[in-house]
Amino acid sequence: MPDTAPHTIYWHLAVALAIGLLIGTERGWQFRELEEGRRVAGIRTYGLLGLAGGLAAVLGEQLAPAVFGVALGGVAALIVAAYLITARDERDVSITGATAQGLTFLFGALAGLGHVGVAAAFAVITTLLLGLKPVLHGWLRRITAVELQAALKLLLISVVLLPALPDRGYGPWQVLNPYRIWWMVVVIAVLSFAGYVAMRLVGAARGTILTALLGGLASSTAITLNFSRLARIHPRADTLLASGILVACATMFPRILIVAGIFCPPLALRLAPAVGVMALGTYAAAVWLWLRARRHQHDPGAEPIMRNPLELGPTLFFGLLLGVIMLLAKALEVWLGDAGVYLLAAVSGLTDVDAITLSLAQMSNRGDLLLSAAALGILIAAAVNTLAKAGMTWFIGHPGLGLRVTGTLLPVLALGLVVYHEAPGP
Fold first, then answer.
1. Measured over all CA atoms, what is the biggest interatomic distance in the chain, rounded to whole angstroms?
2. pLDDT in tens, 136-181
3. Between 178-202 and 312-336, two packed helices, what is the crossing angle to 10 degrees?
4. Residue 425 and residue 322: Cα distance in Å, rounded?
5. What's the pLDDT band for 218 if we cut at 50, 70, 90?
6. Do residues 191 and 330 share a domain?
7. 0.70 exceeded by pTM
8. Residues 148, 111: one domain?
9. Contact (Cβ atoms closer than 8 angstroms) between residue 235 and residue 399
10. Does residue 228 share a domain with residue 122?
11. Which of 416, 411, 414, 409 is nearest to 246 (CA)?
């Protein structure tokens, strides 16, 4: 039974009025340049709409539900009439104002029924959306067709495909779980897309280091390839480009911790000392090189790094690769023990670290692989992948770039392995 005490009703109606005044303030500010009487609805009208919604809800609850229905129909008729007049006289066909007016009445009704928190929260969200019109329209103007399609594909693989997959094991040792494999694919896709979006929002032209940091979230290999190519074209910028490559390589290490931590938190804790040392050491060297290169005015790393943030072909291939690695990891662990896992980690690390990280994290979480073996396998894959990127700086870039990058990565990797060996295990 709802609370019908007078002070409670006063409070609910006060909130309904406040909701209308809040939305009306934003609407009135948007059209503040118009002459008095030319605004369809301003702060007073919105305040009255909110209060009317609250009163209609209270009367419908106290007398009969039909009262609220009649009030809602009457308000809807007024809103439609005002819209038609505005569209005819001002040639303004936007329904934003009409929608805001209807929502104000409904939020007021929610408050009148006692759902004060929900009504107030969504009224604030509505006001923010109304006020963000220039920002949102600016984003729409900057979004390319490729980026829009990438976002829709991300929703497809996460919202549509993921819930439809069976959550059970198939194949040898029941190791192939379609739902879990695709869930890991979604996690990597989200991380990559987030890095791309961050880079687009900030702007690649803001600098090599920032581009490398944000681009490294999506693909440190792409950064290394691009910067190595640029170093061959701009050999005098090799110090600056080397710092960017090192930032991208260093960003791979916290990414490993994030991926491992999502699926097996104890594994992330086991990796944290060694991976943290490697990340900090590489970042420190990158900062030192960047400080040396500050006197250069040009910024060759200011071009976009990635052309497409998400493609279904590579995404499907990653899922297939992940399934194969999970099956091989289990098979080699059964046949060869930990040595088989380390061999697979080294081979996988030549092309990708995420897949082997996810596979070993899942095996460790299920208890199929010791935590220490999974951690060492991931470190081996990260080391091999890092050395492969160092090789790119020599063969795609030039020796000066290779010396700067390799001269940092080799000692840092060695230090990380020493820290892992000395750190107390679980």
1. 86
2. 777 677 777 777 788 888 888 888 888 888 877 777 766 677 887 7
3. 130
4. 27
5. low
6. yes
7. no
8. no
9. no
10. no
11. 409
